[in-house]
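Quick check before the chapter quiz. The format below is the same one you will see on the exam, so make sure you can read both the input and the output lines.
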Amino acid sequence: MFSQELLNLLNEAIARELQVSIQYMWQHVQWRGVKGFAVKDELRKIAITEMKHAETIAERLNYLGGKPTTQPKPIFVGEKLKEMLERDVKDEEDAIKLYKQINEVALKEGDVTTARIFREILADEEEHHDTFTSLLEEI
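Here is the expected output.
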């Protein structure tokens, strides 16, 4: 049996994935100007990846006996592209920190499957972070 701590962390991850999937998609929809044109497709692609992460984590949480949340963390769309990207960088940094913690807790509890899932998701989040920080350099 897995700890309530691990189940709670997985729900936190789901809430985060729901948040950014909506956040990035709405940023994609609301982009403005030439600079926004350059990033809108990337925002859409990342939003879809984040939703797939939410699904994967929810499936794992359900398997472990938890109940996946339907509530996203607070969504921030922003008004200007720079403001959006700055927030997106921070959200990816928070995800990286959380997912490293989940990986550690899962390994401590002997849950190698959850640890593997989060190592894979972590690689995506680091890529997203790199994308957003690179885009921010050009804004």
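If your answer matched, good. The helical segments are 4-30, 33-63, 81-108, 112-137.
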